[in-house]
Amino acid sequence: MQGYGNNGYGRVPGEPRGLREQARTYALLPLRVFLGVTFLYAGLDKLTDSAFLSSSGAGSIGDQMRGVRDSAGAPWLVDLALHGPTGFGYALAVGELAVGIGTLLGLWGRLAALGGALISLSLWLTVSWQATPYYYGNDLVYLMAWLPLLLAGSGPFSLGALLPPRRRRSL
């Protein structure tokens, strides 16, 4: 029930916040830092690995894609990547960099989380689909980890929090 002077969340503005409320406020920050650093590292690792960005050869994106093609949950995605494996490798690396930077800075946090979720989904449907039991494949876990950030946004300690709030449109 919303009372006089109440912000609708059971707290009067300016009233000291309890430890539980502070914990809720910052609960997604460790996840955001972990995912941001991990995706930033993954993108840099791919861009600096000349073997990865080749269409064939040991450790290349092309050989990796050909190796998982028959066991992928969505082989058509692998076929799409195999049309230009080097370009796909660059796109994946740049996408991971953009997601990592956006997540760490908290700028367009939901968009960065959507990008991270889509990358994780595509990797799960292709590279780690054959992992048995399913929980050995880490891409599904990354996909699930992106969902809270997609739903809640970046929260505090983000550039997005510094931007002026959008005006609500009345219907």
Write the layout of secondary structure elements.
Blueprint: H1 19-26, H2 29-47, H3 61-68, H4 75-82, H5 85-105, H6 109-126, H7 138-152, H8 159-162
Helix pairs in contact: 2-5, 3-4, 5-6, 6-7
Which descriptors would you attach to this protein?
171 residues, single chain, mainly alpha, disordered N terminus, 59% helix
Overview of this structure, please?
The chain has 171 residues and is an all-alpha fold. It has eight helices and no strands. The chain has helices spanning 19-26, 29-47, 61-68, 75-82, 85-105, 109-126, 138-152, 159-162. Helix 2 packs antiparallel against helix 5 (85-105), helix 5 packs antiparallel against helix 6 (109-126) and helix 6 (109-126) packs antiparallel against helix 7 (138-152). The longest helix is centred in the middle third of the chain and has 21 residues, at 85-105. The chain is elongated and about 60 Å long.
